[in-house]
Specification:
By secondary structure, the protein is an alpha/beta fold. The protein folds into two domains: about 160 residues, Arc Repressor Mutant, subunit A; about 110 residues, Trna Endonuclease, Chain: A, domain 1 (3-Layer(aba) Sandwich), CATH 3.40.1350. It contains eleven helices and seven strands. The strands form two sheets. It has a five-stranded mixed sheet with strand order 3-4-5-6-7, with helices on both faces. Strands 1-2 form a two-stranded antiparallel ribbon. α1 packs across α7 and α7 packs antiparallel against α9. The longest helix has 30 residues. The chain starts with a helix and ends in a 9-residue tail after the last strand.
Length: about 270
């Protein structure tokens, strides 16, 4: 599953057969870099070749996904940026999500930027790694791409892992169905998973796509963040790429649930 997540974050939405036994950089060169001109035409057909769209999508793919950040990176006004976002939403290129601040007990209607979600992982990959350095790629020069991707691979894959974790939460709590799920963020704090069930139970969670085991301190930090936000969580869920320390495993209970990438297999059964 770990390999599948990594490959899906690049090729998801691209109509090709992916052999995960082949190193990902080799597959990227074969199916994307060497086929740049063809794929560029496909992307341009999807976006109508609109320069503002491309700039905003690159800003979102390379940054924190907030519309305000993407507009700054793209050097477009808020009015024009929001118009482009609405149009790209209608074209089904992106979706937008709002911070789940209404699940904090002291909800004070902060004006927080929405975040952009790409409908296809491949489009996010394209605007993060291909579009910004297209000239070299077009000329068959791949060293800059290889360096950029290698340096950001784990960070880049983290969002896809997080999205899949959200789906596992939806599937796990079927006895008390999750009716709302998303993320919380403001200028200082964030929660990877924040959900509310049909019976009013609040679930808060953390997702760690890193190469080390998650420690007890992660649960402590999650609880402290919820306390600072006045989020009264009934259950805590943690997801980890590489598992957990024995100290954290000992804290598993009805209110603290630990998941690994193996649990994501439930999404394909």
């Amino acid at each position: 599953m770990e390999e599948a997540i990594k490959y899906f974050s690049v090729f998801g939405g691209l109509d090709i057969n992916v052999n995960t036994s082949i190193p990902i950089l080799e597959l990227i060169e074969t199916h994307i870099l060497a086929d740049y001109k063809h794929l560029r035409n496909i992307v341009n057909d999807l976006t109508s070749g609109d320069n503002s769209y491309h700039s905003i999508l690159t800003g979102a793919a390379m940054g924190d996904r907030r519309t305000s950040s993407a507009f700054r990176r793209a050097k477009v006004s808020k009015v024009h940026g929001l118009k482009c976002v609405d149009e790209m939403y209608d074209l089904r290129l992106i979706d937008c999500e709002s911070s789940m601040q209404h699940l904090t007990s002291d909800f004070d209607h902060l004006e927080l930027s929405e975040k952009i979600l790409f409908e296809a992982p491949f489009l996010r990959f394209w605007f993060a790694f291909i579009s910004p350095i297209f000239k070299g790629i077009k000329n068959g020069e791949y060293d800059e791409f290889n360096k950029r991707y290698t340096n950001r691979e784990i960070e880049f894959t983290d969002l896809v892992f997080e999205q899949l974790c959200h789906k596992v939460v939806l599937k796990t709590f079927e006895d008390d169905k999750v009716e709302q799920i998303g993320r919380y963020w403001d200028d200082d704090l964030s929660v990877d998973i924040l959900a509310k069930t049909h019976n009013g139970k609040v679930i808060a969670g953390s997702c760690k796509y890193s190469n080390s085991k998650v420690k007890k301190s992660e649960l402590k930090q999650l609880k402290e963040t919820c306390e600072r936000l006045n989020i009264k969580a009934d259950k805590y869920v943690l997801f980890s790429k590489k598992g957990y320390t024995n100290e954290l495993k000992s804290l598993k209970s009805d209110t603290v649930k630990l998941f690994t990438v193996k649990n994501l297999k439930a999404l394909i059964t």
